[in-house]
Structures are given as C-alpha cells and as structure tokens.
Amino acid sequence: MHQFPAWKSWTVLVVLLAGLVLALPNVFGESPALQLSRKDRAPFTEPALAEFAGLLAGAGIASETVYLDDGGRLWLRFGDVPAQLAARDLIQRQYEGQFAIATTFASRAPRWLGTLGLEPMSLGLDLRGGIYLVYEVDVNGAVTQLVQVMERDLRKTLRDARIQYDDVAAEGTRVSIRLRDPARHDDALAAIRKFDPQLVLKDGATPAELLTELTEDQVRQRQDFAIQQNITALNNRVNALGVAEPVVQRQGLNRIAVQLPGIQDASEVVRVLGKVATLEFRLVDPVNSPLEAERSGRTPLGMRLYRQRDGGPVLLRRDIIATGDQLVDASFAPAQGEPAVSVVLDSRGGEEMLRTTRENVGRPMAVVFIEKERELVERDGRKVVVDRSKEEVISVATIRGVFSSRFQITGLSAAEGQELAKLLRAGALAAPLYIVEQRLIGPSLGRDNIQRGYQALLLGMAVLFAFMAVYYRVFGLVACAVLAANVVLITALLSLFKAALTLPGIAGIVLTVGMAVDANILIFERIREELRNGSSPVAAITAGFERAFSAILDSNVTTLIAGIMLFAFGTGPIKGFAVVLNLGILTSMFTALVGSRALLHVIYGRRRRVERLAI
Amino acid sequence: MELFHKATNIRFLERRRYWYAASALLVVLSLAAVAVRGLNLGIDFTGGVVVEMHFPRAPDLDRLRRTLAETGLGEAQVQSFGTAQDVLIRVPPAEGAAAREITEQVRAAAAAIDAGAELRRTESVGPQAGRELAEKGATALLMALLFIGVYVIARFQWKFAVGAIVAVLHDPIVVVGVFALSGLTFDLSVLAAILAVIGYSLNDTVVVFDRVRERLVQMRKATALEVMDVAINETLSRTLLTSGTTALVVLALIAFGGPALRPFGIALLTGIVVGTYSSIYVAGALALDLGLSQRDLMAPEKRAEVDNLP
Prior knowledge:
The complex is a heterodimer.
Chain A: H1 6-23, E1 30-38, H2 46-58, E2 63-68, E3 74-78, H3 81-94, E4 99-107, H4 111-115, E5 122-123, H5 125-128, E6 130-137, H6 139-160, E7 165-171, E8 174-179, H7 185-195, E9 201-203, E10 209-213, H8 216-241, E11 247-251, E12 255-261, H9 266-273, E13 276-284, H10 290-296, E14 303-307, E15 313-323, E16 327-332, E17 340-345, H11 347-359, E18 364-379, E19 382-398, E20 406-410, H12 414-427, E21 433-441, H13 443-496, E22 500-501, H14 503-532, H15 537-569, H16 573-604
Helix pairs in contact in A: 1-13, 6-8, 8-12, 13-14, 13-16, 14-15, 14-16, 15-16
Chain B: H1 16-37, E1 40-41, H2 43-46, E2 48-54, H3 61-70, E3 77-81, E4 83-91, H4 99-113, E5 118-125, H5 127-155, H6 158-182, E6 185-186, H7 188-218, H8 224-256, H9 262-281, H10 283-289
Parallel strand pairs in B: 1-6
Antiparallel strand pairs in B: 2-4, 2-5, 3-4
Helix pairs in contact in B: 1-6, 3-4, 5-6, 5-7, 6-7, 6-9, 6-10, 7-8, 7-9, 8-9
C-alpha cells in the first residue's frame, strides 16, 4: 500500500480550500462603474441610494446596482460603458460640482464577499487603461533653497547684533561669512549661536572668516522633506481628481510615481497635479461672529471670510503674518506626552511672528492652506491664463505666549497633528517637480490586453493539458489538476496581497504554468525509470518523488534568485512579472511535490495491491 | 504514450570540441550583430515618446510620415503594430519638447489622415530616466548571475559552477544577438525575459548536474565522460519534454498575446531553445574539461539528499 501521512493530505486540502475561497471573488468579473464622493468630504447616507437609483431609472439608464462603501462613497455599477458614461454626464448636469465622479470598474462579486474581506485582485493600468506618471523632485534645488534661507538669516542676525560684514555668501551646502573687523569674530560667533544653536560653525582661512555648513544628515533630511512635501501635495490633488484607487508612492531617491487608473485626459491631470501650494498665517477676528457674517454676506472691515476643512466659516484678519515661503520645517513632535506640531519659520517670518504674538497673547491664530492652479481659458476667442486658487483654513489655535521663529501648535489629536504637519509641509516653498516618465493606456487597449492575455493563458493551458493527459495518462491528469490548483493559488495570493495584475503578470502566469509542469515531468520520468529498473509500482512512486526532490529544489531556487533580482531592480510592470514568477515558483513546488503526491495517494493509496500504474 | 521508452545512449560529449566551436561561433556572431547592427532599443532605455494609434481602416503610412514631417516631427518612426490598422509612432527624445505637445501633434496628424483615428496609448520617458532604467536592468542581470553562481558553488562543486555559469552567460548573449539581427524592439520586458531565461536555462543545467552528482558516486569504475553522457541521456527525456511544454505555452503567448507581448515571447522562446542546447552541450562539457572526477564529490557528496519530505 502506498504510504502518505494523513496530515499532509489535510494540509493540501486546507490550502486548496483557502485558495479557492480567496480566488473566488475573481470569478465574477468586473463591470463599468462610477464612484461618487462628496466634495465637502461628508459621507453619503442611505437615502442617497434611492435618490440615485430613481434618477437613473427616470432617465432610462439601466444600472446593475447602487451601494455605499465603507468610506462613505457611493458606487453605481452598469452593464456596459455607454450606460456608465450617460449616467456620468447626467449626474454632472444634475448636481453640478457637488461630487467628484470617478469612472472605474467594480467587481460583480456579491457584496457579502467584500464584507468578509474577500476581494478580487485589482487590474494594473495596462489592463484597465489610465495614466502613469513619474515625477522627479529637484532635491538639490530644495537644499539650495535652504542654504539661501540660511544666508538671509545670517545677514540679518549679524545686522541685528551690529556686526559689520563684507560678505555673506551661499555656495553649495555652505554659507561663508567675511567680517569687516576680525576682532569681532567671537561676537559674531556668539550672535549666531544664540540665533540657532544647531548650526555647525567652523573657522575660515583668516580670522575674519566664518563658515557654516549643512551636515550630511541635514542635507538628507532636507531632501526627504522635499519628497514628502511633494507626495503630500500630489496626494491631495489626486484626491481632488476623483480617481478610484489612485497610487502615489516614492520611487528611489528622488522620484514619485503616480498611477491614475481609468483617467484619460492627460493634460487635465498634468494641470491639476502641477498646482502650487502655499500657506498664510493670519489672526482670527476675536469679536465678530463668522456665522453672522456668512448669513448677512457682509464681512467686517479688515476681515475676510474663510472656510475650515469641515465647512464651518471663520473670520480672519486681512494682514498676513507669515507665508509658506517662510516656513522652513514642520513636523509632528509630541511634547510632554501631548500631540504637537512643531513649526520653524525663517528669520523674516519669525520677526513678524514675534511682533504679532507680543500684542495678541490669548487670541486665536489660523493657518490658511492655498492651492493655486494656472489654467488656459478661452475668452472672446483668445486664450488667456487664469490663476485660480482654493483656500482652506487648516488650523485655528490660541496664542499661548510670545514666540518668534520656533513654536508649537497643540490641542489636537495625534491623527490631526500628523495631518496638519503634512499640510504645513505641503504648503512650504515647494521643491520643483519635473515629469520624467509618462504612460497613458487607452481603455480599449486595456480591454484588448486582458482578452489577449487570457486567451494566451487558456490556449496554452489547453494544449499543455491535452499533451500531459495523452503522454502520462492518469498521472498526466493528476499533473493537470495540480497545474489548475497552481493557477488558483497564484490568483489567491495575488488577491490576498492586493497586488495588481498587469499584462506582464499574465505573461508570468503563462510562463509559470509552462515551467511548473517541469516538476511533475521530473517526478514522472523518474517513476518510469524506476519501473523500467524493476521497482514495484508503489516503490516507484515513493522513489520517484524522493529522488526528484533535490533536482526540483535546486532548479527552482536558481529561478527564484533570478526572480528576486527582477523584483529588486525592476520597476512598474517588470515588478508585476517578477511577483507572479516568484509566487508561481513557490506555489508550484508545493502543488507538484505535496499536492500531486496527495492526489496519487487518493487514487492508489486505498488499493491493497497496485499491479500497474497508468503512466 | 512514451517518446523515449528505450533509454537513449547518445555520446553527446565525445565531440565536444565541435560543440565548443559551434557555441563560440554563435556567441561571436551575436556579439558581431550587436556591434554592427546595434540593438533597436525601446524608449524605456533611450527616452522619447511612443504613440499608438488605432485607425478604422488601414492608413497610408507614407502619407502619415509626410504629415508628421510637416508638423516638424520628421524624425518620427512610423510602423504598423500587430495589425495594419494599428500604427506605432516613435519620436526620439528632443530637448525642451514636452511629451504632451508631441502626443497632440501626432494625434492631429493622425486625425488629418482619418478622423476616426483613436489614441490607444502614449508613453514618454525622459533620457535621464531611460539611462537609469538601463542601468538598473544591467545591475539586476549582474546580481542575478552573481547570486546564482554563489548558490551553485555552495550546492555543487566549483567545476560544475563554472560550467553552469558559462552556459548561462552564453544564452542571454545569443538572445541579444537574435534581437540585434531581427531588429525587434529591445525594451524592459525583453530584459525581464532574459532574466527569466537565465533562471530557466540554469534550471536545465542543474537537473543534469544533479544526475551527474548522483551517478558519479554510483558508477565508480566509469570515467567522468561516461558518467556525464549517462546522466545527460537519462535526463534527456525530461529536458526535451520540459522545454517542449514551456515552448508550447510561450508559443501561445506569441500567437495570442498581442503585439505588446511578442518581443517578450520571442526572447523567451529563443532562450528556451538555446538554454536547452547549452545545458546539454556546453555546461557538462566544460565541467568535464575542468577535470571533474569522482574525487571531487567525496566530501560534499549527497549533502542535499532527501530528508523525509514527500
């Protein structure tokens, strides 16, 4: 009788069942859909469902379903693309500007699967259409900006201390100072230390000269700051585009990759993403009621009406204390166990801040976040550049004491603090961005790609299965079952990791299927050899699996090494290929070594005597 | 069914000098092809803009070229892509010209020829980004070879490792040569295919070596040459079958996967064919000429022998 431990059979069964469950949502496919989110960030509620269903029905547009997701967004799913587009136009007309509408795809899987956390793998840009952008951040420009701020601050510090200088000049990562009177060297040193104790000061070639240089850490920090700042800003703007499942991520040292599925208008995207953000620090009107001003439409003299992020009104003074250009750093840094955002301004901003806070202790101060975009508009047949800006109050805090260039904003939750620090950084003087890579895939090409990919996979598998069944008979059928299980497991893992399937990914599955059969061939050839050498059928199976093991292991590990290198150094679609290849190697080793043995045990294990093997 | 019912007994390595000569010729031809004709590098590596347009009817490509030249895109390459209705327009990188403008110009030119032309895809890569992608690709290639070499040395004996690595180097060179000769676009996906080929080709070689390792210990009286031949013969059916099945699915990929996957598929197919040849004729032969003998296997012998795994 063929021996095979029961626990291994159970393992195979459990893994396979888990794989089937995880892969299940992919069976249902996707339909064109619209994703609506309210521009005021409030969630949709139940009554909206009936409202939209009624609206579509009234216009004679057939929709498959309307539902809400966990994020309070509203989804409308359609049978075809024309219905989807008609509905989009209708909603745009009906509720002008109230919602961000994203055209996307939604899974047809029943909702309860989603609530169990089971979701289909998402499709990459090359399969669903969309835009892929890679921005390069001028991180060195950001360092130069910082050094120039330092230069300005040092000039001012020396002037304030009444120390005369011939020159204060920024070059590279350092600022060099030449004093008029070498005797005042120590005074200058003391003044600068007092201004910023963290500056590293060195003596120059002559007693009249002083040097200050950014440390490597500071340079790296500044570069990271520039990247993070741009990632936050891009994230904000991408959200405004109303894209479903956008991706904004850092790539390497100085790049940011942006993926926008389902979007087709490249120039619109480049325009919106190319906005410029800044900040304004202003005093809050302590007397008049903003609600009153909003109701009457009249604002008190010297004041302006702004909106907070939650939509509430607030009255601010027209005078600006400091702007984003003067913000050097903002970070979330809890102080004494309390969440706090610490802010550093340059000397000009600090001076103005000092003057303001001296006179306004106990009064509230606000930070306004402003995003400007340039737009080419046709007016009277001519194209004109129009600057538009969006203004939003991101923080209102009470001034607790007198401060200048370094202060903290407290009284918020940790999450609010992190968000505020991010927004403040996004509004600081931005490091310039350039587009270095741009890929746009039309929706029809995406559809073709999916179709072709699946066709190649199905045909390849069909031919392979036919060959295996003919060549190895029952064992061949076992190999086919195991290969099918392998594809299920790859699908399950991709769904579990929420990895996106790309065209190279499909190619990876095809290649994996072709290569996965190798393990089975190695085993089966070995079994045949053992049979030829006169082993009994059961002994041949056991020996076949055991002797083929080292060859299977070695050959898979070498392929895995190549796959890991692909993953480590590949970008974009190549990574997708590498992920599938690597997962496929792991799953195929499991299915071929354990899975096919378990299946053979089911076929031959019960019989007391096995006379012949159908191989 | 069984194609190899009787164990074959081909003396593969007796005339290995001829195979060395053949391999050397292949490598030299490939390198010469790259040197003379150069590779048709995709924009992934050179930078530039690619626009794919779909026309309702097959367009007159010459007219499209003229129209493009009139708008100042005289350097654009125009070729059909997959079908006669699909056209790929490639514009080399230019200083200052934004990808968006070029795309718009191409779209306008295409619309002038046929108003129903549809934009299928545009890609633009800056020259700097292109250079970096190429560098990263080369790094991946070198690191893969390095780590695979380390693994093979750790698992086998160094003579095997040298044979395996030379065989593995041989394969991508020939694939690159085929791309230089055919003028097929060499892009990132082809580079990925080459890395897959390296893994795959080694796979074949390792299976043969695994058998050599096993037989060297069992056949104490035989010469290394005889053992090597026996091992290659014994694994021949598996080698050809696996190559056959893999080639089969890759053929499906080439035939049905569409033009985007075709260069990738062709690189894989070439790699599979060359990889199969090199693991039979090159890897073993080299290990042999490096003086492989039973003595080499005494110490680390069967270190990897099966534990109680299934």
